[in-house]
DNA sequence: CTATACTATAGGGAGCGTCTATGATGGATC
DNA sequence: GATCCATCATAGACGCTCCCTATAGTATAG
């Protein structure tokens, strides 16, 4: 019946010159695309490509189909744009957990801007604030901590990580992989006030008889990192924070973890499809960042 | 993803003004179409139709989609025509069994001509001749007798029928539903030379001691019917022949049947899709004729 | 208030699009 | 000329989703 996906396969083969690359471009396996083209050819009763082992070239019938096939794809694109029309002015609102590295947020913003039409709004906030905004439909997607409890939101976990110490690179214990709380008794500490495990951290130290004094309290991870590198003190942060001049040894017996992922409403008035694409972009970006 | 079938559903709703008729036009059940439109609306994140119980009307977004959607369908049609281009000059060759009523052939020819682009060739012939032509790829489809044996051809049975007598409406036995061979001893008979069960018929009579004389021999069913109505004699024909001035009582204990259907090659160089459409048209036409 | 016409929802079944694994083919290389 | 590499085709299994029937919900008409 010459369905849309077949048109895409066909155009991909033309554009990439062979089946394998075309398949990759369509996000399908090579045999899938092979079958797809065969189906088109069966449908039309005539070959569309002349296959040689070196390259694939259009037959006469294929050449006649090429331009109209592009017209098909173009008309689809036009139709999809037409209906968005008004909706395009509604910005996509992304919430990002405050305790996500600034570079990550930057990368996310760049990728979304480049690969998606329409305006973008980024909101930072703590876990609870983001959750609340989502619940009230003030956000479309949030990159935040995902809990097993399903609290009425869709969610897609992306990765889990622990928390570890942040030490200046010239700290005496900087090269150690694991450090016990007791060894840090003499160190000043920097308080990241927005930290999700702040109370757990403080309990961890007090339970081991360590009562450090606090050299700084800040809401900004960037500043906290600055303080650490300046030798002002040590702190505990999610593993994903990395910077030159700073090492990240484990804090012994501190096993808290967080799972970051995307949370979103499924009952949105916004386009499901746009949402899905944005989610895909986000998740791909993060995948790329954590490796 | 806004697939092609969804575009068709959408346009059908616009054209028919309600979901139920649109579904019928698309050959799907109403819930199917309902879900399809819902899927489009979910995909776009906005309603396309305003439903009232009396009619459905386009929303603003739906109205924006309407024209581009038609463009999509048009571009598909154009693409499909483009690739046929050369193939369109090859006529579709239909074989029709000689013992199929002339009105049927006429109806078939008309339907195919109206609903299908390209030239048409109709060949009449006996069962064996048609089969031979099919085998040699001199025919695309044949409306003929289908046997359970699968002799390398695809086939689609359409209906089975028996054979019965054909009597002039003013024949003394015309109102009877069943007549025994013996009762026809004094009648003249018309020989339809092309009849598939000619030898079985003649044996049926001779075995019962009836040796009628033959008032006419013809290859034309139309003429045979004319002779019957003129009172020249009686004959045996497939049940499907019906005409004013002629009745069709059963011949007692004559239980032969034939199954008419479509036979075709599956390994054709011709377009599978065109073939499938032609077969669908044919089978629909016959369905309509036999009721 | 019943009857009618229409759309939405639920749940099961089947077709087909997709996958992985494997085969087949032909050009390049030593 | 044997081997390797790149390419497309085929086979069989899996799983998604399109489609169905049955049913509910809702508004208009008589």
From TrEMBL, chains A, B:
UniProt KW keywords: DNA-binding, Transcription, Transcription regulation
Q: Name one GO molecular function term.
A: DNA-binding transcription factor activity
* Pfam families xref list: HTH_1, LysR_substrate
Does the record's keyword annotation contain Transcription?
Answer: yes
Residues in HTH lysR-type domain copies = 2-59
SUPFAM superfamilies from the UniProt entry: Periplasmic binding protein-like II, Winged helix' DNA-binding domain
May I have one GO cellular component term? protein-DNA complex
Q: Which InterPro entries match?
A: LysR_HTH_N, LysR_subst-bd, WH-like_DNA-bd_sf, WH_DNA-bd_sf
Superkingdom per UniProt: Bacteria
Protein family per UniProt: Belongs to the LysR transcriptional regulatory family.
Please give the name of this protein: LysR family transcriptional regulator
Lineage start: Bacteria, Pseudomonadati, Pseudomonadota, Alphaproteobacteria, Sphingomonadales
């Amino acid at each position: 019946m010459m369905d849309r996906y077949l048109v895409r396969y066909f155009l991909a083969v033309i554009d990439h010159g062979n089946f394998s690359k075309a398949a990759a471009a369509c996000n399908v396996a090579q045999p899938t695309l092979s079958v797809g083209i065969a189906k088109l050819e069966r449908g039309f009763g005539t070959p569309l490509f002349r296959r040689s082992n070196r390259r694939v070239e259009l037959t006469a019938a294929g050449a006649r189909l090429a331009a109209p096939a592009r017209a098909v794809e173009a008309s689809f694109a036009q139709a999809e744009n037409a209906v968005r029309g008004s909706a395009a002015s509604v910005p996509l609102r992304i919430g990002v957990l405050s305790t996500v590295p600034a570079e990550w947020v930057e990368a996310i913003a760049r990728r979304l801007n480049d690969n998606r039409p329409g305006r973008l709004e980024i909101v930072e906030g703590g876990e609870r604030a983001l959750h609340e905004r989502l619940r009230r439909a003030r956000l479309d997607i949030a990159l935040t901590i995902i809990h097993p409890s399903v609290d009425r939101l869709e969610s897609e976990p992306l990765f889990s990580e622990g928390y570890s110490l942040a030490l200046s690179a010239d700290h005496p214990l900087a090269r150690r992989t694991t450090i016990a709380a007791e060894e840090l008794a003499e160190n000043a500490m920097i308080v990241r006030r927005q930290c999700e495990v702040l109370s757990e951290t403080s309990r961890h130290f007090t339970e081991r008889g360590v009562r450090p004094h606090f050299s700084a309290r800040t809401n900004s991870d960037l500043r906290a990192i600055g303080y650490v590198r300046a030798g002002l003190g040590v702190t505990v942060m999610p593993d994903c924070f990395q910077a030159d001049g700073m090492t990240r040894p484990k804090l012994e017996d501190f096993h808290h973890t967080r799972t970051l992922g995307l949370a979103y409403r499924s009952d949105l008035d916004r386009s499901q499809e746009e949402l899905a694409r944005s989610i895909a972009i986000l998740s791909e970006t993060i995948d790329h960042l954590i490796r």
